[in-house]
Design goal:
alpha/beta, eleven-stranded mixed beta sheet, single chain, 22% strand
Length: 399
């Protein structure tokens, strides 16, 4: 594929708002996880919660979109020059030629949960949402994309991708197709997911939530820690503006559809997605300097992903999961961990795997627990969702 320039990128997680907060925490090996304090009857677990969202509000002209998810989307949008980059591409191409492609798993379902918990009864006995939450635009899966388009004033194609935990990785692939098809010249891609009861209790019902901080690829791992986050990247055709240091070089997608919530036992879909991303980027596996793994810390996911990685990559690869820093941010995991891959390219900091100390014999030598420093030319990100919906991305230094 023709590479796409990356004009700006950012993430806001439990580590803080913007790139500097992520850099510092990664370098210091300081986790953003904390004992669960979300909701009226918190589960016994650890979460990656973004601080002070409750104290923030949307601008008055966007008030109809107000909910936890969109407030985080707005907060993340203000970071690291994303709005300035959008202004650049608007001036070059016009707002109608800039697409919005957002990824989310549950979107603003937290507001819908709240509305149902506060149902009001009319004189005729019928029940309805309270007036403050009777805003249909936030009670749809497209709430996030709708809000971001309204907040930015962009007029190109607007898509919300909801493929569980691969959602905001697949936005890069979707944007690349829109641009390569001539339907847009640039795109704002990203993802936002926030904590809510459906997520916490739903994953707990699947027996996937750990009572202690997650330990990806550790022999003692028992489950994941959930988190919330938001992030963005601004993409543009490489011949449409000034050069940038970093590019989207390739993407790979697959859907093995093995099981509703369990990965394919041989990692078939994961391997196909990684192979396709390498092929589109036009590189061999040994060219990748860092791989951010999906690495959720569940027993099955980690060993299966590690086996798929070992089948494709040399032992010298530095591969790790960063979910010990942020928690599993579900529909935002793709953008957050793509940002970590881009930081590895930018800064040379290759994160290890926080909280993990005892290597699982089922995982190969590519899995690294300690941070490393190295200049690399390509970094990769894996994001795998329920139903075997997989996406791998390759980012590279501009040649």
């Amino acid at each position: 594929m023709a590479p796409l320039n990356i004009l700006a990128y950012t993430a806001t997680t439990a580590l803080g708002a913007g790139l500097d907060a992520q850099r510092q925490a990664l370098r210091e090996k300081r986790s953003g996880l904390r004992p669960n304090d979300f909701g009226d009857a918190p589960l016994t677990c650890w979460i990656g919660r973004v601080d002070a969202l409750e104290d923030q509000a949307l601008p008055p002209d966007l008030a109809e979109f107000s909910c936890r998810n969109n407030i985080l989307a707005w907060h993340a949008l203000q970071q690291d020059g994303v709005l300035a980059a959008l202004q650049q591409v608007r001036l070059r191409h016009g707002a109608g030629r800039v697409a919005v492609v957002m990824g989310t798993s549950t979107s603003s379902i937290g507001a819908t949960e709240q509305a149902y918990s506060q149902l009001e009864t009319a004189a005729d006995g019928s029940q309805h949402f309270p007036q403050a939450l009777n805003r249909p635009r936030i009670h749809t899966p497209h709430s996030l994309g709708d809000f971001v388009q309204a907040a930015t004033g962009l007029g190109g194609p607007c898509v919300t991708v909801a493929t569980a935990c691969s959602s905001s990785a697949k936005v890069f692939a979707q944007a690349a197709r829109l641009i390569n098809a001539g339907l847009a010249d640039a795109a704002l891609v990203g993802g936002v997911d926030t904590l809510c009861g459906s997520v916490l209790f739903g994953f707990n019902a699947l027996q996937l939530v750990a009572p202690t901080p997650c330990q990806p690829f550790d022999a003692r791992r028992v489950g994941l820690s959930l988190g919330e986050a938001g992030g963005y990247a601004v993409l543009e055709r490489a011949d449409a503006g000034p050069p940038t240091p970093l590019q989207l070089s390739g993407y790979g997608e697959s859907s093995d559809a093995h099981h509703m919530s369990a990965p394919h036992p041989q990692g078939l879909g994961a391997r196909l997605a990684m192979q396709a991303a390498l092929q589109r980027a036009g590189i061999d596996a040994d060219a990748v300097g860092y791989l951010n793994l999906h690495g959720t810390s569940t027993p099955a996911n980690d060993s299966i992903e590690a086996a798929a990685v070992a089948a494709l990559f040399p032992a010298t690869l530095h591969a790790s999961s960063t979910k010990g820093w942020t928690g599993h941010t579900l529909g935002a995991a793709g953008i957050v961990e793509s940002v970590f891959a881009l930081l590895a390219l930018d800064d040379g900091l290759l994160p290890g795997t926080l909280n993990s100390e005892i290597a699982d014999a089922a995982c190969g030598p590519q899995i690294r627990f300690e941070n490393a420093q190295a200049q690399i030319n390509y970094a990769m990100n894996n994001s795998f969702g329920f139903g075997g919906n997989n996406c791998s991305l390759v980012f590279g230094r501009a040649g």
